[in-house]
Each structure stands twice: as C-alpha cells, then as structure tokens.
Amino acid sequence: MGETNEVLWCIIPMTNLLLQVYFDLMRSFRMVFNEFFENGSISQIEIGLGPRGELRYPSHSAKFGWKYPGIGEFQCYDKYLFKSLQKAAETWGASSFGKGSENTGSINSIPQNTEFFHDDGEYTSFYGSFFLRWYFQVLIDHADQVLGLAHLAFRGIPIAAKLPGIHWWRNTNSHAAELTAGFYNRCYSQVASILKRLESTLNFACLEVRTRDEEREFLKALADPKIPVLIAAWDADIPAAGENARPIYHREGYNRILENAKPLGDPSCRCRLSVCNYLRLGPTLLEKHNFMEFERFVRKMHGGHPFN
C-alpha cells in the first residue's frame, strides 16, 4: 500500500513565466518538506495534471450537469485554447479548421445521436482528425512540460502521473467519452513514452472497474473495462501503480483490483503493480465484516494466487 502527495495543475497553453512559477512552487515544496523526504515519510510525489489529479480535460463534470454515461464536452472554447487552435489550423494550411465542432451534441448526449461521434461521423473526416490530434497534443504537451519541471524539482524522488479509467462508450467506433477527455488514437502509449523518458510511474485511477450490480449500466453505455492504460505502462517497461475510484468493501470489488494488480498467466511477473493506493479509510471500512474482507485483500496483495 502506498500514499502520495499531489499538486494540481490546470490545462492551458503555458507561457515561460507560468512555467517558472510552477517550477518555483515545486522547488519550494521540496525545500520546505525536506525533512520528510530525507526520512522517507514522503516516498513519491504524484503530480496532478487535471481534474481529480488525472491527466485529462474536465469534460465530464457533475458540477456542470454531467451524468453517467454522457459523452462529455470538448474543452477548447476559452480564448487561450481557441487561439491555439486557430494557430494550429493556419500552420496546417487549413485556416477554416480553426474552430470547434458544432455537431458534438451536449454533455449528456450518446454518440449515435450526434453528427460528430456516430459511426463514420465527423470525427473520421479530415477536420475531425486534425481537431482531435491538436486537442490531444495540447494535453500531452501539458503533461510533458509539467512533469519535466517536476523531474528537475524533485530530482532523486520518484514522481507519478495519474491516468483516468474512462470506460463508457469504449465499445463504439469513436470512443466518444475518451475523445472529449483528450485521449485519441494510440494515446496511452504516447503518454507512457513521456513517463518513461522522465522516469515516472503511471498511476491508473480505476482499478476496480465494475461490479455485477453495474453490469446493466455497462451494457447500456457500451462500456469496456479492459482499458489499455496498464498495458501501455507494461509495454513501455515503466512502473505501474493503481487505485480504486470508489469505496470498496466487498470481495468482488477486491478481486477485480487483484485481477488488475496481479494478472494470471504472467510467468515473468512483469505485469504487476508497483504500488496500490486504497481509497478510502473511514468508519464503514472499519466495520467488522468490511474490515475482515479488507484484511483478506491485503494478504492477497502480498501473497500468492490472488483468488484462493
């Protein structure tokens, strides 16, 4: 079991001045808490890269009315990102592409009811490809810049970045919910490449994925729990960590974490988690039956066959 400290950043095209401010903040944090770094109390720093610390756009925020399994909304209409989009379109030789799509529905739409996300929709067009590549590039540049500063500020201290588990609409052609959050094409492997270069750990934020009670909702949302985030980390040969997105007190949920943390049929033991964060400690977990299940889970994390 591990625990991390987190610094949260916003996603905007960054100026040199803003980058310097970020770096100064991280360096100050390292100096002020030096005692805890030296004695091992702080063993890793998780750098927040977006909402809930995850590398993604705030595309599906309940604060703005989102409800599962809505596709979410693209986040590129403030003056800074819109200017970046226009500049990218001009550089690409298609200034008419310097606009956001008007055919993406609303935050709670389903893919097939939109012109952009339905099968063979606008996302497959020249414009769609340009827009989605630009949208993802802004996100990955953000990760590269901030993690690069963290690598310098916390030199010698392991750092980590959290990736989300956006599983709804994965069994559609467009993967609409992932697109609005910023993930496009072979995105996870590209993120893993950056983390490898910066000697960082990939932390997957949805280890439990689903339970039988959620099966009907998964089918309705054409969801796929086999999100290739951890596979991208293992393929890149970088440390992989994970945590549950919601509280878990039952054996089925714990077994799903174990299944992801210690996959069966891996003779090399390469595909294992280096750290597992359990969220969250509270009165419900400490109830007798729940705590017995938690004790079993901890033993299995440190033991042999996870499902005995």
From TrEMBL:
Catalysed reactions listed for this entry: Hydrolysis of (1->4)-alpha-D-glucosidic linkages in polysaccharides so as to remove successive maltose units from the non-reducing ends of the chains
Cited InterPro entries: GH, Glyco_hydro_14, Glyco_hydro_14B_pln
Keywords from the named record: Carbohydrate metabolism, Glycosidase, Hydrolase, Membrane, Polysaccharide degradation, Transmembrane, Transmembrane helix
Family annotation (Pfam families): Glyco_hydro_14
GO terms of molecular function: beta-amylase activity
Domain of life, per lineage: Eukaryota
Positions of the catalytic residues: E54 (proton donor), E243 (proton acceptor)
Gene3D superfamilies in the cross-refs: Glycosidases
Membrane spanning residue stretches: 6-23
Biological processes per GO annotation: polysaccharide catabolic process
EC number assigned by the record: 3.2.1.2
Family: Belongs to the glycosyl hydrolase 14 family.
Protein name listed in UniProt: Beta-amylase
Organism for this UniProt entry: Capsicum annuum
